[in-house]
């Protein structure tokens, strides 16, 4: 070919991928086109390899074509994105067609010397087509992601409008009617934001989203009882204060969610966390250890100032009225030792600079080790104080004495007792707020710092709300609604104490080098409540498009891998291909295509697909022929495969009905994709012949657990190829 069918089209390839779903959709595509490009150095192919190359090229073209069709449909339904989406779809289709043409057997020329066919004579064309395809498909995905953000904003706006109506209602009948609408809108908002939270790549944003959604979850029930209490006792000032506090907190949480998804200035990196001792220690230790590499990158005076700023942060511990004398003295002693060791280091550093030393002297090395040790002692000391304080508080507050006393005093109408126990609760609140601040200092990660700040804010807000609810009950001791309202706020307090105990465990895990499992916050909807059909349709349309692209490319990966096996009738080869074919037929069903005609056929196919346990048996038998290291890898993947097959069996047999049931069942296709990925990985591991690997990324020592290099590595490879 004299020129690339793709032309020279310049397209934006610098798009930032912020969600896992976009990234995971691109990985199989990147793997496939990298496979094709890596063949350019060996233009002469056997008939078998040539057929495999042709099949991969056609698979890419077909999968992209179907994916683009969905993108074009989205563009039609969203006029504000029509031009951008249309251009991206046009470029993607053009690039897919170019790759199909470049891998077309009919366009290849036989060599006069040995009769073998030569392909990829236009190497530059393949690289350009690949880059254009990646950038355009990424653009389609990113534009589709904007629609998800738009859905969240639209859902938030509906919630805000209804929230305003709820705040102004004057009758119970009107309140019940509007609150029912509000509940449905919150369910929809919870589903959308929950999916977004799980999809975010940035852990700090995920933590902020989790905190905001936790507020909305707890405030929904508070809003119900606080509003009812205010309607029953419209002239009660404490009831009004209680209700206003809930509405204000809900609005703030809703705005925080939108700030996160739209990356507004008030959110993200621009929203600074309190300066923590942990981060100060980490930065200071890094500065000290950098002296081994460069004696002249900073000055001794700057290091002294850095240490003093760190020591100043410990005042949150030493100035606290709740810190014991022994704990205070221990922290001050460690700080003094750190000052002495740092001063020795600075002296040795100045001396080394005076003789123009090129590297750290022996005296400096000793001083560096002593400084790092003393700064590590400081971290252990403040961690011990913060965690010990939190543990003791949780034990004391676990008895809930002030809360029980407030409930009793309120029910008796005893305003004096309510005031007395309110003071005790306020003292507990201040202790908990300060303890959360100390935990933030030693949390060890930014997401945990965010969770500490959220806990601090929650105790700070709920404490006064419990007191106002108790005052309302004391003024109206016979009011069942006022009593119910106080119970709800007390339950929120107890719930936050439970969250604090889990947070404490996670902080300990980080400190000890373990990463505890993150506890996801519960979403607003309860079991049995589903998203409204039109939202579900939009979400499923996008999900199915991504799934189709992934599934088709992964199936092609599997076909390519088993092509290299000499024994084509081997059980592993036969069963792997069969399962991949079934998974793709299940996807085609969602498009109204393929061999499956009814939902009954779909569910039956899922049950058959779950019989992949037979493949596990064949692989287990084959693993006995492998050496210890290879056998260990295969057995690890087998355990994952067995677990997936069992999940698939359970999903296929779950009794559900209606349109929602269809969508729930279709989700088992995601498990089929995982099965395909494991097939590729397992087939790669158990190759019993030394052959030239068709897809280098599958055999790379640097590949990840799925046998695929990271997206960044693939993109770097494409940049290098284009530069050549």
UniProtKB/TrEMBL annotation:
<dbReference type="InterPro" id="IPR030045">
    <property type="entry name" value="CTNNAL1"/>
</dbReference>
<dbReference type="GO" id="GO:0007155">
    <property type="term" value="P:cell adhesion"/>
</dbReference>
<dbReference type="GO" id="GO:0007266">
    <property type="term" value="P:Rho protein signal transduction"/>
</dbReference>
<protein>
    <recommendedName>
        <fullName>Alpha-catulin</fullName>
    </recommendedName>
</protein>
<dbReference type="GO" id="GO:0045296">
    <property type="term" value="F:cadherin binding"/>
</dbReference>
<dbReference type="InterPro" id="IPR036723">
    <property type="entry name" value="Alpha-catenin/vinculin-like_sf"/>
</dbReference>
<dbReference type="InterPro" id="IPR001033">
    <property type="entry name" value="Alpha_catenin"/>
</dbReference>
<dbReference type="Pfam" id="PF01044">
    <property type="entry name" value="Vinculin"/>
</dbReference>
<dbReference type="InterPro" id="IPR006077">
    <property type="entry name" value="Vinculin/catenin"/>
</dbReference>
<keyword id="KW-0963">Cytoplasm</keyword>
<comment type="similarity">
    <text>Belongs to the vinculin/alpha-catenin family.</text>
</comment>
<dbReference type="GO" id="GO:0051015">
    <property type="term" value="F:actin filament binding"/>
</dbReference>
<dbReference type="GO" id="GO:0005737">
    <property type="term" value="C:cytoplasm"/>
</dbReference>
């Amino acid at each position: 070919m004299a020129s690339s069918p793709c032309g020279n089209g310049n397209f934006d390839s610098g798009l930032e991928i912020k969600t896992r779903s976009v990234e995971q959709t691109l990985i199989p595509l990147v793997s496939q086109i990298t496979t094709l490009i890596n063949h350019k150095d060996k233009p002469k192919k056997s008939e078998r390899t040539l057929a495999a190359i042709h099949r991969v090229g056609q698979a890419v073209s077909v999968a992209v074509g179907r994916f683009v069709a969905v993108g074009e449909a989205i563009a039609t339904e969203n006029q504000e994105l029509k031009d951008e989406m249309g251009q991206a779809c046009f470029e993607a289709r053009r690039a897919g067609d170019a790759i199909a043409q470049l891998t077309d057997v009919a366009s290849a020329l036989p060599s006069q010397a040995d009769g073998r066919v030569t392909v990829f004579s236009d190497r530059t064309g393949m690289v350009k087509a690949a880059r254009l395809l990646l950038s355009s498909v990424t653009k389609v995905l990113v534009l589709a992601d904007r629609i998800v953000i738009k859905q969240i904003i639209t859902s938030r706006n509906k919630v805000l409008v209804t929230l305003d109506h709820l705040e102004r209602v004057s009758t119970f009948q009107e309140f019940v009617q509007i609150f029912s609408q509000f509940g449905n809108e919150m369910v929809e908002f919870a589903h959308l934001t929950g999916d977004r939270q799980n999809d975010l790549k940035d852990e700090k944003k995920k933590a902020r989203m989790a905190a905001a959604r936790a507020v909305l979850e707890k405030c929904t029930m508070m809003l119900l009882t606080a509003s009812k209490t205010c309607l029953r006792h419209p002239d009660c000032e404490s009831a009004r204060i209680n209700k206003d506090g809930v509405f204000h907190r809900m609005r703030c949480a809703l705005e925080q969610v939108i700030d996160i998804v739209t990356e507004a200035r008030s959110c993200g990196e621009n929203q600074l966390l309190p300066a923590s001792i942990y981060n100060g220690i980490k930065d200071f230790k890094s500065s000290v250890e950098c002296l081994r590499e460069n004696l002249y990158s900073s000055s001794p005076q700057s290091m002294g100032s850095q240490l003093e700023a760190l020591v100043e942060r410990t005042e949150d511990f030493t100035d606290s009225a709740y810190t014991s004398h022994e704990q205070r003295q221990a922290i001050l002693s460690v700080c003094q030792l750190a000052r002495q060791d740092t001063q020795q280091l600075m002296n040795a550093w100045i001396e080394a600079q005076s003789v123009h030393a090129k590297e750290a002297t022996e005296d400096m090395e000793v001083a560096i080790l002593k400084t790092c040790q003393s700064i590590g002692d400081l971290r252990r000391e403040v961690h011990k104080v913060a965690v010990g304080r939190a543990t003791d508080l949780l034990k004391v507050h676990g008895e809930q004495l002030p809360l029980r006393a407030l409930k009793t005093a309120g029910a008796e109408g005893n305003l004096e007792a309510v005031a007395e126990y309110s003071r005790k609760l306020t003292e507990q609140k201040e202790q908990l707020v300060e303890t959360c601040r100390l935990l933030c200092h030693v949390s060890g990660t930014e997401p945990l710092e965010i969770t500490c700040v959220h806990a601090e804010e929650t105790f700070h807000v709920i404490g006064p709300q419990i007191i106002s609810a108790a005052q309302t009950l004391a003024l109206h001791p016979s009011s069942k609604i006022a009593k119910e309202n106080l119970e709800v706020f007390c339950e929120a307090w107890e719930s936050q104490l439970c969250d604090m105990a889990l947070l404490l465990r996670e902080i300990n895990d980080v400190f000890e080098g373990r990463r505890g499992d993150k506890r996801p916050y519960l979403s607003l909807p309860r079991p049995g409540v589903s998203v409204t059909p039109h939202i579900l349709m939009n979400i499923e349309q996008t999900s199915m498009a991504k799934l189709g692209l992934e599934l088709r490319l992964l199936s092609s990966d599997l076909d390519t891998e088993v092509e290299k096996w000499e024994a084509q009738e081997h059980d592993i080869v036969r069963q792997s291909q069969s399962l991949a074919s079934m998974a793709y037929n299940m996807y085609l069903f969602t498009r109204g295509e393929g061999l499956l005609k009814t939902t009954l056929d779909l569910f039956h196919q899922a049950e058959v697909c779950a019989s992949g346990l037979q493949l596990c048996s064949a692989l287990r038998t084959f693993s006995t022929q492998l050496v210890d290291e290879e056998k260990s890898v295969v057995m690890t993947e087998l355990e994952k495969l067995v677990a997936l097959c069992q999940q698939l069996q359970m999903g296929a047999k779950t009794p559900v009905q209606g349109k929602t049931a269809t969508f729930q069942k279709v989700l088992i296709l995601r498990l089929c994709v995982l099965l395909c990925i494991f097939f590729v990985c397992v087939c790669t591991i158990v190759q019993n012949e030394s052959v030239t690997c068709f897809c280098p990324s599958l055999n790379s020592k640097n590949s990840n657990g799925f046998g695929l290099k990271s997206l960044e590595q693939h993109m770097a490879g494409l940049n290098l190829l284009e530069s050549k």
